[in-house]
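This part of the workshop introduces the protein records we will be handling. An example says more than a description, so a record of this kind follows.
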Amino acid sequence: MALQKGDFILIDYVAKVKETNEVFDTTKEDVAKKEHLHKEGQIHEPELVVVGEGWVLKALDDALTTLELNKPATVEISPEKGFGQRDPDKIKRVPIKQLYAKEINPVVGARIEYQGKNATIRSIGAGRVLLDFNAPLAGRTLIYDVTITNKLDKIPEKIGALVHRRVPVVEQDKFKLTLNGTDLTIDMPEETFYVEGIQIAKRGIAMDIQKFVRELSETKFVETFKAEPKPVATTPTPVAVASIEPEPKPEAKAAPETKPVKAQKAAKTAKA
């Protein structure tokens, strides 16, 4: 069945530059690590796309309606339909001291912000820096190896995907969704309490649901803070004290028997 505008789908892709075969984006973690695109904490997984909403390049978005579920395809995008042709007027030389004044340490290939615009440093020399304000992929033909891995049709599936898109750092199945007629309640797991920007994410979720799940009229977020369990008082277990028997006193030794001393004769027999 051909896809239509508004369909919820998950896609896996590897995007590369046709001229150099350089991979510049992917949803696959193994490819990201191999191509040195993976950053600590970054999540690589099939990406949610609502067809026709411009969540991906328009040329890719348009091509999705011609693809089939679970059937790998290759989409080629010309510079005109990608990031445009390179404009020589967007390449300028500026004094290096101007970057130093903004506490920018220029390095060839680095992306910087200069006068409110993003630029790539192309070269450094003679006290000047060559800045390229073209998009990094301007003038390049792009190749997307893409597969539609799933199509979401049920309302809970769509809501869960919209929530995960805004809060990808928390597992999707940890959010409890309760539908009551046209009312939706989302129980937020404790892990979300510490997510930076969670209030903005919640507002984004509510706006997405209003736009894409028109069957619902109200969305509530519930955050439950549980008290720490009180320690249970325990009766100390009596410690058995071993009775110590007094050491037996050594028996008094009997005084050695003394033989009576024979009385010496008081006087010796007088000599005759």
The chain has three domains: 1-84+138-152, 88-132, 154-227. The helical segments are 29-34, 58-64, 96-101, 155-166, 198-212. The chain has a mean pLDDT of 89.
